[in-house]
Amino acid sequence: MEIIDRLLSSSLEKDIVKPFVHILFGARQTGKTTLLNALLPAPSLHYNLADPEERTRLLADPGLFRRECEALPKKDKAHLVLVDEAQFVPLVFDAVQVLYDSDKTRWRFILCGSSARKLRKTGVNLLPGRCILHRLYPLTLMERPPAHTRTVASDFILIPFVHRPSLRSTFPAADIEERMAYGELPGIALLEEEDRKAILRSFVAVHLEEEIRRESLVRDWGAFVNFLRLAASESGQIVNYTAISRDVGLSQPTVKSYYQLLEDMFMGFHVPAYSKSPRKNLLSTPRFFFFDMGIRHAASGIIPDINVVRAEPGKYFEQWVGTEIWKRLQYRGDGQLHHFRTKDGAEVDFVVEFGQDIIPIEVKWKVNPTLRDVPNLVSFVKENHQAKAGYVICRCPRPARLSDSIVSLPWQYL
Q1: What is the pLDDT of residue 123?
Q2: Is 3.30.470.20 the CATH number for 7-135?
């Protein structure tokens, strides 16, 4: 099977030859192993620490990894050593540091993982000054083009890539309802519809079983499952720790730690409140989003399906847009994503901050939005001089200027 190109491919291919340790993080099923296998078809050593036998072998003898690397014969070209799911044996990071410091040219280490929880909790050395950190996310619009639409000129894209890569291949095109229903995981995008539902439902159970229960990351498994379902159902909303704590019977500190656990496992992200507005009555509580719409549905107990999103399209459309913007900003490496809401209920869905410039964004499941649909966006632009224009992301066929400062954009133009 031909490997489909990813946004990270070209930069990772260039970076990986540099004499540093490379760490690739990303949630399960984002395609880390597939990408590395394409770039490193024949590493000198390959450890898959998701394999219980391999993991136990290294845990039983902490010095074994180092000795096996040292057994590789010296040669002119560096030996590639690939470690999948490196977080399961944190001592590997210390061994890599010892080996790297002893000879920076003999080995080229590539470590990848789907969770930073155990590394953070155990204070693992993430090789400061020695490593380049890479992150892989679910598919973006560039990797999986829109269906039934004309080509979008890069000059019109609202949040362009700093260095727009040239992809040699892309995933099958998809319309917005398909994306909202099944998400953007690469493996899911290549499956038939019925298989997508089954795999997404099993992903949550299997992933949590392996990543959380095995590592004893929660004390009360039943309470965590209830928290997960509620957190997924509330994805995209302002987090109400008090209400969630009451509903699942857990303390607020425990609820906050569970949200942090989801972030550490790359299953979600917080969007902080925008605090630089001249208004004084601002809410400061963040919103929380699951990293993928298909996983969000499965975690909330919903069978992913087109009809599910058609019942509340505006709600899911806003979440999809927020996730797409977040992924784009992560790949750019600059810019911050915020939300804006006052205590009296005025809100703007998203505020993207680039240095001194800000881009306020409203999301509407409409084909022809008007200024009457976005009064808070109009007010925000008037009150915040850093905002040169406000944007309405919608389903309009082409960009349209609604006023001197408000523009409607098709979702394909993100």
Answers
A1: 46
A2: no
